[in-house]
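Help wanted!
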Amino acid sequence: MAANRRPTLADVAREVGVSAKTVSRVLNEDGYASARTREQVLAAVAKLGFQPNLMARNIRVGGPDTTIGLVVPDLGNPFFGAVAGSIEDTVRDRGLTLLMGSSADDPDRERALTDKFLARRVSILMVVPSVGADHSHLKAHRAAGLPVVFIDRPGAGLSTDSVVSSNRAGAHDGVAHLIAHGHRRIAFIGDLPTKLYTRRERLAGYRSALQEAGLPSDRSLVTNAHDQQGASAVTRRLLSLPEPPTALFAGNNIVALGIVTELARSARKDIAVVAFDDVPLAEVLEPALTVVAQNPEEIGRAAAAAALARLDGDRSRARTITVPTRLIARGSGESPAPARQEA
Amino acid sequence: MAANRRPTLADVAREVGVSAKTVSRVLNEDGYASARTREQVLAAVAKLGFQPNLMARNIRVGGPDTTIGLVVPDLGNPFFGAVAGSIEDTVRDRGLTLLMGSSADDPDRERALTDKFLARRVSILMVVPSVGADHSHLKAHRAAGLPVVFIDRPGAGLSTDSVVSSNRAGAHDGVAHLIAHGHRRIAFIGDLPTKLYTRRERLAGYRSALQEAGLPSDRSLVTNAHDQQGASAVTRRLLSLPEPPTALFAGNNIVALGIVTELARSARKDIAVVAFDDVPLAEVLEPALTVVAQNPEEIGRAAAAAALARLDGDRSRARTITVPTRLIARGSGESPAPARQEA
DNA sequence: TTGAAAGCGCTAACAT
DNA sequence: ATGTTAGCGCTTTCAA
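Answered by r_m:
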């Protein structure tokens, strides 16, 4: 009783007294079958609890499997969860299913996952590339018709479709917002590692906003953190500088949590904050948190749409789709007008 | 150039001038192969970019596929994201990969997903069951050795392992905390639909805490909401009651967001709140939000461990694993001591 | 140490 | 309207 074989097409055929092919025809609604046979087959299928073996089918049909391989840094990060949900929504009626794994931003783990997905002959491969990962090994697959899409960051060594946020423009807008409200010493707390694409782009936006306003760029105000605790520590350090910043720009949602937590702990409501990426309860904070919101749903949708178009024969050259961010001013970027700094 | 066939074992064999079986042996390190052949084979594999077709392999070997099918209500919900991440961590060195899909709490979508997963011959099936879904169709698979685990809620029509939070005890503790701080009119805002297991359990905990304290249970204080906006509206309605509650108990994280948002909007810091499930920034709110924290990592770990044990031959009877919750008192459940209600 | 043949569960291509 | 044969890419079984 333990591990009895699952019934096969042949079992169903034997039960009814027809050939395997007839059962196949009925189940796939391919070709003709008499009403009587159809009924009998369906009855036998139900009786035996038969479920066609999709792997066997795929092998015979020869096409790719009806799965999408998706590699993200962290399954628990709500941003990537939202992206994944949106991809699923977009591909559901094509019958595609998500095969997911997390890389922890480790190139080796990323490679292991993509190799596994390729061995499964996924229909589409989507990757949030890790820093240091090389993707030239995917060239042949792409050439053979496998749609490959990079999400959130461009990949290295392979020219293919990618979908990213408007990191630079978004960060620029956020910092410009702070400048417009009188801030002149604005610190940047970015992602780690510093080579991360998103960090570099957002930092570039920060710098361009300062430059545009004719403000000096103080290297001691450009910092990094890779988790919430780290961001809190950096915040503390920045505020104890001889000439502390009057405003902080958070390079991502995790950093934002660390900043906000630290400011609350030290009761510093006089420090302005703008964060890249929205966080829950932002509007409830005091002051409410101003953010440069990303659009994970649209990122997922765009990535899926691009991949499906490739699957449908789109042979145009690789595109980079930039999904706009949106500045949501809630207060924390305005209050208070900083006192004039003394030199 | 577009869709040229991926190389097969036979292609590699032809390239080297050996039989397919020899190549297979080298790649699977099964049986003997001369150093020379091994080298040649490996070289040809690299040259052709050969990757064994896992589906074909599985079909021949006959065993289940190295995937875990996981059905959750919503890929974007961080709670389920954390559970999924924890499952992945636990099964990674067994070489298992996650096949994921969201049901939107719709029994039909849930069934479609589980059927698909079964057709793929997943090694393990894990489901967060939707209200109204029946799982008796899984009996045969379970009997045939497929580990099935229900997560967050028990399933219907099938006795199998399940992993849930200590919903009843947790809710009891949260409400008792409010009572201990002087509250006597405490409202419950639960999940929807009202048949949802988690809502029923948490409501039972709420009721038992009231009973234990000799407090009357006022039906007008037991309410529901199924999204953040709904929870805000319910909060508004409760506070405009002739005899409004002095404290609110949130039945889940989404409801908590709605309550907190509405209280902030109406500047009602006099209302105490305890929420089931933790939310980011809870400690930064004013007052900081007291919660009954769940442990999604442990839920995922326990679910995966139970399933792996079954895979390894554990034939003991179905267990329900209850993962403890933890009351984290941060302030919102204490302040202020309510004024004595006037009859 | 290697190979040939058979077969996993299914369907394409041709029968009939 | 149904059946037969062959074969997808791989591994098992047996032989050499």
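OP: Thanks! One thing I noticed: The two ends of chain A are 83 Å apart (CA to CA).
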